[in-house]
Prior knowledge:
Elements: E1 9-15, H1 18-25, E2 34-35, E3 42-43, E4 46-54, E5 69-71, H2 79-86, E6 92-100, E7 105-109, E8 120-128, E9 133-137, E10 140-142, E11 148-152, E12 158-162, E13 168-176, H3 179-187, H4 208-218, H5 221-234
Antiparallel strand pairs: 1-11, 2-4, 3-7, 4-5, 4-6, 6-13, 7-12, 8-11, 8-13, 9-10, 9-12
Helix pairs in contact: 4-5
Amino acid sequence: MNAAPKTRYLRLPFLFDVRRLECDLENIDEEMWMAHVNTTAYTGEWRCVPLRSVDGRSDHILSLSGMHYDDTAILERCTYFREVIDNFECEKLSVRLMAMAPGSRILMHRDHGTSFEDGVVRLHVPIITAPEVLFTVADEDVHFAAGHAWYLNANCPHGVTNESTRPRIHLMLDCIANPWLERVFMEAGFEPDEKPKYGDPSITDDNVAEVIAGLHALGTPAGRKLAAQMIAVREPHADS
């Protein structure tokens, strides 16, 4: 079993004006909100508004890899949202408003490939929330306070409950890690996980010899190349 990430969530050194965030919410018309498509992942009501999406589509709320992202027409209405987004000096993929109705629950799940170590960083800026709104990240409950910017390692099992009497609305950004964002994270106390020694966490010193033998047995140039790379990692001073 893989060790738990050192940093499951992190409050970053930003504080935004909650009142101005709420004012921009008033520019979002009711018909712009869409139910989250993964209806098996939650109970109650979970809705989204795309502010930056695949090809800038106002009807597309999923975050997909390898796609072109652009601002939606909805974001043009929201001066302060744009200012908040521009505070993050890195490339942005999907940017969405995410709303949970009172009494709603997002079930425990993982969003694979969305951690700092993966290069895709998921950030939350709570706009409307209450102390009764709790993230469960792995085995820990945490409240993300309004106006701050929070990193969530979404590779971890996580879920959300809204036991308050208010809707919970977050501005959520998927960002591409870069040196600027790395500096921000380190200053905030981020502890990166060590990369797997052999590139795959399932390969260890105990079984690498077997893996190398299997790659050689394939008899392919690609197999021999991977085997040589593993040998170089296992025996960094060996002549090969």
